[in-house]
């Protein structure tokens, strides 16, 4: 799990450009087409792609292109199992003590320059993570590299990973080993880290790929064009030969681009859902929710909002929020309740307690009032609670275009005596302030976060964690989190998620489904969307309506 890189992108738009006549049946592979950036997400920020090195970038927009250029070591399918047919690895053999993981690579994968993909490429990735340390976006997630005692190349198609202690095999495979995506060592090992930073947008640096697409052109702030990798050695070679990620920076612009046909695939902004009938040449696909959680997060180090350190106050917020109303008003009924960091759809990792809570809901303003009374906060004359001369109030930063959700949230919290002051800021500025360890001034943020295939939260809430921009610290939560890493099965995860829901280190909000508008001639979309939030245009083809 990676901050920003894994923050959900709100408008990932696609622009499909047809380069051939429509076909009545699925066209032969290699048929041309043109797309924009991928549909998915929940909370705004308009942004664009700024770099293409997956070892160095931490933006979900950048990851969109990177995921098409480099085939994963382990392809996680919709059932959260490894699909070895689409993975560079052909098998992972776990030793009897759950400390040895032997990764066998398929011998059929080749780089676009004809060089075989081998264990040396996987080892290169691991050693680069070691070299980069916390500068690597996913550092410490999934136990990489902290849980690893040694990584050894046994032969060109076999790697052995030995862990420092027995680990939960499912967690380590889905969240740890999956980070060891092979990158072209024979090209990249010629560059220092500083030189690689200088090459972030140099198309020549990224000529050698093993994924279904490669970069064709990059126009900063406007679009990225990608073309099918003609030397792709994996299954499901692309049917389309060009994908264009068009950067569109507001909900209204997205809508008008869809209506004019400028883009052929993109998110339909929720506020414009009632106007969907105007998009006559499209069809609406409702997908998701994304494998993520939306949240109201706090800076626990800011003394001006010290009240958030009290679990009673955070629990009161949870009970003050009418999630069903959220879903009905903001998403026209297309959403699901959420109270923890483990997504409820699909319910593969939900504890029995989480399932009951999701079924019955948590909205109870009377209980919220009672909890705040117990915490010592008394209602003031203006309807805002006061304690020791301090108001129960905070300033909330929100990305551009995200005003509807926070406004409704602020109204719900006001009913139990909390004041929310909203400040709109550019997404990148919010992230920069949160990520600056010396910045103790920001108070609250309204964002979203994607989770790993095995949804543990990584180091987001760990005391001193590399991704813990909230400065939250709870030793019991750390202990429960650590047990997930070492205990096979789901019981440790159940205990952790139940405690997380009780503590609410961030206030988890409903998880909304995603409205996607697609031109009628686009097919294969159901397979193109991943439950983990990625988009795979190699599965799309163009035909008759």
From TrEMBL:
<keyword id="KW-0732">Signal</keyword>
<keyword id="KW-0813">Transport</keyword>
<protein>
    <submittedName>
        <fullName>Extracellular solute-binding protein family 5</fullName>
    </submittedName>
</protein>
<dbReference type="InterPro" id="IPR039424">
    <property type="entry name" value="SBP_5"/>
</dbReference>
<dbReference type="InterPro" id="IPR030678">
    <property type="entry name" value="Peptide/Ni-bd"/>
</dbReference>
<dbReference type="InterPro" id="IPR000914">
    <property type="entry name" value="SBP_5_dom"/>
</dbReference>
<feature type="domain" description="Solute-binding protein family 5">
    <location>
        <begin position="91"/>
        <end position="457"/>
    </location>
</feature>
<dbReference type="Pfam" id="PF00496">
    <property type="entry name" value="SBP_bac_5"/>
</dbReference>
<comment type="similarity">
    <text>Belongs to the bacterial solute-binding protein 5 family.</text>
</comment>
């Amino acid at each position: 799990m990676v901050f920003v890189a894994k923050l959900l992108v709100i408008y990932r738009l696609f622009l499909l450009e047809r380069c051939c006549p429509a076909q009545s049946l699925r066209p032969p592979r290699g048929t041309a087409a043109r797309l924009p950036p991928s549909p998915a997400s929940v909370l705004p920020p308009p942004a664009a792609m700024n770099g293409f090195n997956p070892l160095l970038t931490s933006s979900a927009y950048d990851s969109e292109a990177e995921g098409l250029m480099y085939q994963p070591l382990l392809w996680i399918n919709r059932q959260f199992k490894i699909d070895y047919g689409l993975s560079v690895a052909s098998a992972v053999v776990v030793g009897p003590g759950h400390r040895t993981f032997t990764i066998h690579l398929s011998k059929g994968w080749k780089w676009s320059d004809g060089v075989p993909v081998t264990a040396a490429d996987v080892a290169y990735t691991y050693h680069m993570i070691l070299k980069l340390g916390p500068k690597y976006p996913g550092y410490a997630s999934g136990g990489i590299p902290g849980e690893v005692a040694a990584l050894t190349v046994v032969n060109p198609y076999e790697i052995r990973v030995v862990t420092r202690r027995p680990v939960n095999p499912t967690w380590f495979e889905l969240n740890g080993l999956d980070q060891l995506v092979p990158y072209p060592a024979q090209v990249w090992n010629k560059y220092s880290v500083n030189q690689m930073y200088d090459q972030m947008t140099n198309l020549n640096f990224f000529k050698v790929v093993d994924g279904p697409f490669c970069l064709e052109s990059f126009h900063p702030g406007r679009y990225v064009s990608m073309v099918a990798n003609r030397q792709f050695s994996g299954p499901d070679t692309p049917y389309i030969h060009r994908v264009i990620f068009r950067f569109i920076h507001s909900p209204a612009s997205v809508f008008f681009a869809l209506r004019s046909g400028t883009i052929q695939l993109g998110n339909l902004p929720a506020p414009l859902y009632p106007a969907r009938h105007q998009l006559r040449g499209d069809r609406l696909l409702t997908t998701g929710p994304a494998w993520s959680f939306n949240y109201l997060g706090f800076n626990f180090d800011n003394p001006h909002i010290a009240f958030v350190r009290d679990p009673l106050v955070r629990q009161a917020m949870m009970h003050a929020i009418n999630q069903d109303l959220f879903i009905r008003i903001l998403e026209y009924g297309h959403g699901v309740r959420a109270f923890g960091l483990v997504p409820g759809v699909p319910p593969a990792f939900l504890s029995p307690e989480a399932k009951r809570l999701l079924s019955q809901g948590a909205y109870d303003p009377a209980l919220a009032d009672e909890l705040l009374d117990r915490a010592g906060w008394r209602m003031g004359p203006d309807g805002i609670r006061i304690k020791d001369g301090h108001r129960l109030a905070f300033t909330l930063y929100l990305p551009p275009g995200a005003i509807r959700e926070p406004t409704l949230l602020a109204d719900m919290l006001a009913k139990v005596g909390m004041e929310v002051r909203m400040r709109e800021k550019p997404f990148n500025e919010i992230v920069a302030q949160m990520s600056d360890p010396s910045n103790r001034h920001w108070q609250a943020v309204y964002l979203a976060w994607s989770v790993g295939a095995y949804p543990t939260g990584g180091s987001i809430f760990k005391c001193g964690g590399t991704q813990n921009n909230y400065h939250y610290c709870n030793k019991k939560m750390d202990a429960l989190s650590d047990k997930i890493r070492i205990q096979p099965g789901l019981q440790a995860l159940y205990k952790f998620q139940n405690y997380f829901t009780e503590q609410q280190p961030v206030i988890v909000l409903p998880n909304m489904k995603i409205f996607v508008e697609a031109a009628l001639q686009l097919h294969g979309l159901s397979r193109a969307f991943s439950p983990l939030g990625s988009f795979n245009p190699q599965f799309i083809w163009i035909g008759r309506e």
